[in-house]
Amino acid sequence: MRRLDIASVRGVAQEYGKYVFKGCSKVPKKVNAQTDELRNLIKSIPQTAQYQAFRDYIQFVWDNYEKILILEPDKFQTFADSFVDTNGNKINVNVNDVNWKKWQVGEKKIEFYKAIVEAMNYEHVRESKNGYLKYFEMLNIKTCAYCNASYIMNVRTKKRDKKGFQIGEELKGRFELDHFFPKSKYPFLCISFFNLIPCCPCCNRWKSDDESTFSLYTSQKQDLDVFTFYLTNFSIIEYVLKHDVNKLNIKLKAKDINLKYNHEARFHIEELYEHFKDEAEEILWIFLSQNNAYFKQAMESFNKVFDSKALLRIMYGVYEGDENIHKRPLSKMKMDILHQLKLIK
Q1: What phi and psi values does residue 317 have, to the nearest 5 degrees?
Q2: Among the ranges 114-118, 289-293, 295-299, which has the highest mean pLDDT value?
Q3: CA of 288: how far to CAs of 129, 159, 295, in Å?
Q4: Cα–Cα distance measured from residue 2 to residue 326, given in angstroms and rounded to the nearest whole number
Q5: Are 152 and 327 in contact (CB under 8 A)?
Q6: Is the same domain home to 92 and 192?
Q7: Which end of the chain has fewer beta carbons closer than 10 Å to its terminal beta carbon, N or C?
Q8: What is the spatial distance between Cα 334 and Cα 31, in angstroms, rounded to a whole number?
């Protein structure tokens, strides 16, 4: 729920663009061979006017393959609108067309976009240890980009032979990849680094192919933090009077009201965070205990042993600094409420 500065991860994207297909069993070891399957797809389509638009579409992807791999979000739509054939004419293709293979009578129908996604080796990018999994670790993200409520991570599992002996390790991702621009509408972006959003299964399923206006990456410093959680003042008063955690009301606001509405419609954040009131309550306990003599004494003792960073983790379970919000679930909510109550600066 906090964006990443593109400048800080551009180097990761550059490495991804160069080496993501290293070790791919489907890709021959030669220069630009990762585009061979696109070339083969073009060759499979009859060279007739009826199918020319499909050939031109694939050709455009092939010609811009390396650029697409590291294309940045603010250029996605412009690039999508720039699809032209060799004569400079706009390419008009329905990527959801299931009848594009009319020349292959009796063959199972498949949408055109699925053929593109397969030819671009998306499954390798998603599952291979040399694919996105490797570069995901470089992002230092451990929570869902959309809700910040669930852990996401890579796990190294033991690889065994048929007799049960360990012969190595396998890297497996315990997360899903959403496409900021859906691959069913923009298949050429299916393996574009900045279009891949690591998230939890629920958020990926809830969003599906719907449009989300929250992009994980931004080049604008002022757009890093666009969401803020807060406890309503009335709910805090009710809690103090009745000591009933159910009285607490956790709300979400955004710099752009349309962004807030869109995020709520896709991921149901406020409804989800209804289940985390006890986490907010624990922060309130500390807030309401500040003037207690025993609490002050305990804090003085802690300060002699731990630095401020360790104290934040001990007391609130969060890392210091907004840039570390992705390290633990619920850190965004906790940090925002800590700021709201002025428990941290």
Answers
A1: 70, 30
A2: 114-118
A3: 48, 51, 10
A4: 8
A5: no
A6: yes
A7: C
A8: 49
